[in-house]
Every structure is written in structure tokens, then in C-alpha cells.
């Protein structure tokens, strides 16, 4: 499966091959700071699955993760956590219906509890190198 992710202005387009490794809402303080939001929808893909096919985005780092954004509208398109074998694409940029989160992660940094039917991990689930410790909201 190949899909496209586009920024709102349409200047920058990503081509993404294959299925995501995981999809979740991230509450880490880095995501909060760069997005000005309480959490972000994230879809993980292997590094070689994501390619820039249109536009000339720029890369910058605020705290820890290098992030790539559209140089025209400023939308953050994806981040590349150092040493990780994946790219974290913003889930809201995927085609409608393609973002299907399975959990919330890094909830130790949550601005407020989110009450829904998904699991809420304090850090990361064990599948992503975490402890599987849950928040008791």
C-alpha cells in the first residue's frame, strides 16, 4: 500500500509505502512544545518507507527530535527520533480514515487526563522499548 500525506497548503507531499509500525497519540513535552498542543497523532513507519515527493521542506530541532516542516505553511510533517529505526509522521496529515490509534503514550507529560477507550501508557509500551506502565486515570 502506498499513500500520500500532504501539508495543508499542498506544497509538501510525502509518499509512504506500507503499513504503519504503530499509531498513537503522543503526550511528550517535545511534541507539546513544537505543536502548541496537548498531544499529537503519530503514525510510525520504517525510515525507508517515507519519501518527500514534492516541496522543499526544512528541518529543525527544538528539544530532542529533528522535525521536518513545510517551508511555506510551517506545518510539521514528521520527526526522526535519533537512533530510532522509524519516522514519526503526523497522523492528521494522512488520508482520511488512515489514522487508527491504538493507544496514548508518554502520558506522564499529559497536560490533562484524556478519558477514552484506548490504553494510556506512562511512557512507551514494551513493544517500543518501554515498560508497559499504565496511567491510572
TrEMBL record:
GO: which molecular function terms?
carbon-sulfur lyase activity; metal ion binding
What keywords were assigned to this record?
Lyase, Metal-binding, Zinc
Q: Which Pfam families match?
A: GFA
Q: Where is the CENP-V/GFA domain?
A: 3-110
Q: To which protein family does this belong?
A: Belongs to the Gfa family.
Under what name is this protein listed? GFA family protein
**What is the originating organism of this protein?**
Spongiibacter nanhainus
